[in-house]
Structure formats: C-alpha cells, structure tokens
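Per your request, structure below.
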C-alpha cells in the first residue's frame, strides 16, 4: 500500500482527515499524524512515505517550509496542501514547490479522493516509465555483481572493476537478499509486464524506490533471473527493520505487478570476499518455497537455528496406507494422506530435503498399493512422474498434496467401476495373488486350487481385467522390487527372491523390459 502522512496543528482536523475517506480501499495507509512540520520531518527521517497532506499555516515549521526542506533533501514524495484561506500568494508558492493540489478547508471528500487517485496513477506511471530505461543500463555492473556473489572473480579484478564502476565496498558487513518470482504465479503478471526481463526490472525499480532512501545496497538481476540485493553496513539488530522494508516491497510488487515472490536473506558477512557465502545460503533457503507460502521472507540464521532446535525426522507406516487402499476405504485413505501432509506443514521442523524424501516415499507407497489392487491403472500411473518432477522444481507441498488426493479419488473411481465387471472367481484370484505374491504362483497351481482348467482361468482373467495373468503378476512384482530398491540396501538378487522370482536372470530381463533400465540403474537414478 502507498503510505500517507497527515500534518496539521489542529487535532480535530487530523481526526477528521483520518475518518473522511476509506484509505484502505484506495490502496493507501496513513502511517503518521503530525502536529507541525518539524514533527513530520522527524518522522520522515525514520520512515518513507509516498504522499504528504499538510496544512499550510502551522507553528515551528509551516507547510510550505516543510515541503521546501523535503525538496532540498530530494525526497520523492507527492504533496497536497490544505488551507483555511483562499490566499493566491500561498497558492503560487505552493505550485512553485511542485504540489499536486491545493484544497480549501473544510475538505471535500470528492475532491480529496479524486486528487489521491490522480497521485496514485502518477506514481505508478513513473515506475513503469523507468522500467525500459533501466533495462538497458548497468549490464557490466550486473555482470560484476553476479560474479562477486558467485565467488567467481579474483580480488584484484573485483577491486579494479568496483573502482571503475564507482561501486562502494567500504563496508563493515554485507548481507544478500534474493527475490524470486513464484513460478506458478508468474503468468498473472503477463497483462501488466509481458516479458520476464521487464518483470525483473520492474521489481528492481520498486525495491530501489522503497529501500533506496533507507539502506545502502547494490541491486542486480543475474542470469538465473532472480533479483539480488547486496546490503552494506547491516547489523543483526537491523534485521527487524530490513524485514519490514522487504514486506513493504512485497506488498507493492503484489499490487503493481500482480505477481507473488519468495524472499530469502543470507548470512551476515564481515568481509567482501565472503559475500558469496551469504549468497549461497540465501539460494539454499529458496528450497523452502515448497514449504512456505508465497510472499514469505526467510532469514538464514533464524531459519537454521529453528531447524536445529526442532530437528526431527518422522516416518510413517506404509502398511496402514496400503491396507486402506486394499480395503477400498476411500475416506480412510484420504484421512491418512491429509494427516501425513499436516505433519509436514511445520516448516521449522522439516527441511526441504527431508520433505522430498518423505513425499517420494508416500508417492511410491500409493503407486504400489494401486498397482497391487488394480492391474488396469496405467492412465493413473502417468501422473506419478509429474508429481516427482513437481518436487524437484519446488512446487508447493500443499499443491502436491492436492494432486495426490485427486489421484487417489481417480484410483478409487476406477476400482469401483472395475468391481461391477469382475466375476467372483477373478476377484478371489486377485486377492490370492496379492496375499501370496512372494510365492511360486502360476496358472496351473491356481487353476487346481479354484477347480477350473488353467486355460479357462487364464481366458477369464484376461477377459475381465484386460491383462494376461503373467503380465499382471510381473507388474506387481516389479513395483514391489522398485520399492525395495529405493527403501532398502538389499542386494538385487535378494530382492529378486523376496518378490517371488526364483530365477534372478528372469527378474533382470523382466525389470528391464518393464522399466527400460536395469535394477541397478534404477537404484542409482533415485536421489
């Protein structure tokens, strides 16, 4: 929101202005009420504002003297002047100082709102006009800054280039800030900022306008398209103030550009040669995007301390999940998944790498159970690679939860449909296979058990399931083998025996035919 300061020596006038219009609806926030110009200047020394509404006649420092002083300090603020007198000389002086409007008391609601709307449009227009200009500037400087934070430049070359580009590195400390556009929301900005590069330049422009008068910093957009700030002379006691300024930047970025961001702040370093450590740690925190909501601001030390204090790993019993799926209990399965993800939502406890491992585990548990329960579920399996890919691009864990629940509903719909078209003997056969998968089962022994001929049993199974008996059993065993390859350190020959293959060579051949890679290659491919 744009910030407004009200200045008048009459308390009732100040109170009236605060209640005269709905500031929030206009995207404005009254951050200060001052009784004279000197008090307003003192407030502006501690914070920034976009709009100043001031009385013209006040003790200590008049409204015109206040504006004149602010202009001398080159404060980028828009002014509205109020007066109880229709004095042409005052009007001329105020216009010469660059005010936006001169309003007579009592202030008209319509006139004040109209003036404020015009000021807001003017502020936003000025931001957009500078975007194209800044896009072509500082290419060399951006390159040097990126090489600096990446630790890819020698000290001598850096000092020479810094001097050439008038970059100040005479600082007692440095800390980096990375502003990353949330990928899934980036398309929302398309109507306002049609190109990615322009979007980053717009973010740079907003940050420079908001932060520039308060902090010393360098800002650039590197090849990875993240906006990076290097703040100088920061101290740990300044972190709350830095967070407040970043929050304000996030708010303006959201409103003006229609896009969400994720901000991470690296470690505080006392030597310019160690800035790359701060940058690396800020990049490390970007993995938390899958756990934290958009527009979060994370500080490295704070996040790591919380993780160290609360560190614990939780595992889950996949048997319970598989039992729920095998029992065709949709509600119980969904409850299990929701409970699983609710335990992951405390991102001060779980690190992103832990969460990825746990989610991969539950995805494979679900896939195994679905494959075990229903042979003809290949369309559902198409969703699994997408889920795993989403993990490694740090898609929100909340979105992954919704995708998994949707997949479960799809699977149960398939189960319910299939049950209507399967005979009792096929149902019994599937249940027997599920319960005796590790044993030496074949059509001949099963046909004898169910008092039918092997040929008829094979025909009936394929007719009602759409898959041959052999392919069905192999499919279940290969899924089980993949689970063991991921979760255990068993030798491949041991896994072959455990899942029901008496011939290891046949297992290798079947696995490669099904997965297009060998069991050993599959194990190595899993992170």
């Amino acid at each position: 929101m744009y910030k407004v300061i009200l200045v008048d020596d009459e308390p009732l006038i100040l109170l009236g202005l605060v209640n005269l219009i709905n500031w929030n609806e206009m995207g404005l926030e009254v951050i200060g009420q001052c009784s004279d110009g000197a008090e307003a200047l003192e407030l502006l020394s501690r914070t920034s504002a976009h709009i100043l509404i001031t009385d013209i006649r006040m003790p200590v420092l008049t409204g015109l003297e206040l504006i004149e002083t602010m202009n001398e300090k080159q404060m980028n603020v828009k002014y509205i002047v109020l007066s109880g007198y229709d004095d042409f000389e005052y009007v001329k002086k105020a216009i010469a100082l660059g005010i936006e409007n001169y309003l007579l008391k009592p202030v008209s609601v319509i006139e004040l709102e109209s003036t404020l709307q015009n000021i807001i449009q003017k502020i936003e227009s000025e931001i957009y006009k500078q975007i194209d200009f800044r896009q072509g500037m500082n290419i060399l400087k951006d390159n040097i800054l990126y090489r600096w934070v990446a630790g890819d430049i020698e000290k001598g070359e850096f000092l020479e280039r810094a001097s050439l580009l008038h970059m100040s590195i005479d600082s007692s400390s440095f800390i980096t800030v990375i502003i990353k556009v949330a990928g899934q929301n980036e398309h929302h900005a398309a109507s306002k900022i049609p190109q990615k590069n322009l979007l980053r330049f717009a973010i740079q422009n907003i940050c420079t306008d908001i932060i520039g008068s308060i902090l010393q910093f360098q800002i650039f957009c590197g090849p990875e398209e993240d906006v990076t700030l290097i703040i100088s002379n920061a101290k740990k006691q300044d972190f709350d103030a830095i967070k407040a300024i970043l929050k304000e930047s996030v708010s303006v970025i959201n409103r003006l550009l229609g896009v969400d961001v994720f901000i991470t702040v690296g470690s505080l370093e006392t030597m310019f040669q160690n800035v790359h450590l701060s940058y690396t740690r800020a990049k490390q925190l970007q993995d938390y995007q899958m756990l934290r909501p958009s527009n979060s601001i994370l500080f490295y030390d704070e996040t790591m301390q919380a993780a160290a204090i609360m560190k614990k790993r939780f595992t889950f019993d996949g048997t319970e999940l598989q039992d729920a799926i095998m029992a065709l209990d949709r509600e119980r399965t969904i409850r299990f998944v929701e409970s699983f993800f609710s335990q992951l939502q405390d991102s001060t406890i779980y690190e992103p790498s832990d969460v990825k491992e746990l989610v991969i585990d539950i995805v494979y548990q679900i896939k195994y159970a679905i494959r075990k329960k229903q042979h003809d579920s290949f369309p559902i399996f198409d969703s699994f690679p997408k889920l795993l890919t989403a993990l490694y691009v740090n898609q929100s864990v909340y979105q992954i939860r919704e995708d998994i629940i949707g997949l479960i509903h799809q699977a149960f719909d398939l189960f319910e449909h299939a049950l209507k078209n399967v005979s009792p003997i096929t149902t019994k056969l599937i249940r027997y296979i599920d319960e005796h998968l590790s044993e030496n089962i074949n059509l001949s022994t099963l046909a004898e058990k169910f008092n039918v001929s092997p040929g008829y049993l094979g025909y009936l199974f394929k007719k009602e399931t759409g898959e041959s008996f052999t392919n069905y059993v192999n499919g279940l065993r290969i899924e089980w083998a993949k689970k063991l390859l991921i979760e255990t350190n068993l030798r491949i020959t041991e896994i072959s025996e455990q899942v029901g293959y008496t011939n290891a060579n046949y297992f290798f051949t079947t696995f490669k035919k099904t997965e297009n890679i060998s069991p050993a290659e599959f194990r190595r491919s899993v992170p």
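The chain is about 55% helix and 10% strand.

Regards,
D.
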